[in-house]
Amino acid sequence: MMKIVILDASPLDKDGGISWERIQALGEVTIYPRTSADQVVERIQQAEVVLTNKVVLDEAILSQCPTLKHIAVMATGFNIIDGAYAKSKGITVSNIPAYSTDAVAQQTFALILGLTNHLHHHSEFVRSNDWAKHEDFAFWHQPVYDLKGKTLGLYGFGTIAQEVAKIALAFGMEVIAHRRSDKTIEGVRLVSLDELLAASDILSLHAPLTAENKDLFGTESFSKMKKSALLINTARGPLIDEMALAKALNRGEIAGAGLDVMCQEPPQLDHPLYKIEQCLISPHMAWASVESRLRLMDILEANIKAYAKGEPQNIVN
After folding, report:
1. Does GTP-binding appear among the keywords (predicted)?
2. CA-CA to 228 of 20 to 30 Å: which in 49, 56, 161, 204?
3. Which of the following is catalytic: 43, 118, 206, 284?
4. 236, 242, 293, 295: which one is catalytic?
């Protein structure tokens, strides 16, 4: 039987809603909730198949694992794997494509609506009995604006961004996008990066992280944006220079930010962004709806079965 090691099961099954039984039926399976960097080699040195979500498998680790033949990444992003080195050693790497599109698009708009309607702030106003003590039947501390007629800018235009665009168009928003290719959908106009920054009332990031776009959204980019603009990130934390974002928000250079990802995860204690009222942060949960995790498990099982048949699928190296 295949010897299978799961290095970090916790992100998938932390609420008990996901079962590993189907994976356990495929071989001799060892499950670890979490694995630290100094535990990796010992745990996978005799494995044929390794499942990882965020545990890094680089050349230094892979070179010590002579029996390893397949790495099943339990996510869409696979930058945690040294794919080129793995390929040179005959190790295939698979990922889980397009399993969380709906969930991430939904969280994108949860952040947008949270910021435009100031939901957290006004909910706290009610909970603190301030509304009950007020003379008026209606109250708001900050103005609420319609999304209809506003411009949503999308940095990147893959599957998730396209779903976000459809939702935005249903709200009556104008949608513009910046991407490497010229592929678009009806109702979305492709623009340069400078126009994206200048024209967006809400700028939402949906691109993979590369060496070229790391910290792209920093001081220079914020200076080109509207002072009323909102920045949303459900893609990768390092797309944004977080210290520059904190300064921009504190100085009123942009109006707000909604983040589901950060540069370091879990983030540092007492991060400067925590203290900024116009910054909403969710703990990298956009991908994790119950339905998305069930789809992930379906594809993961299929990937391992395909490898076992000698017909690996969703290969990224």
Report:
1. no
2. 161
3. 284
4. 236
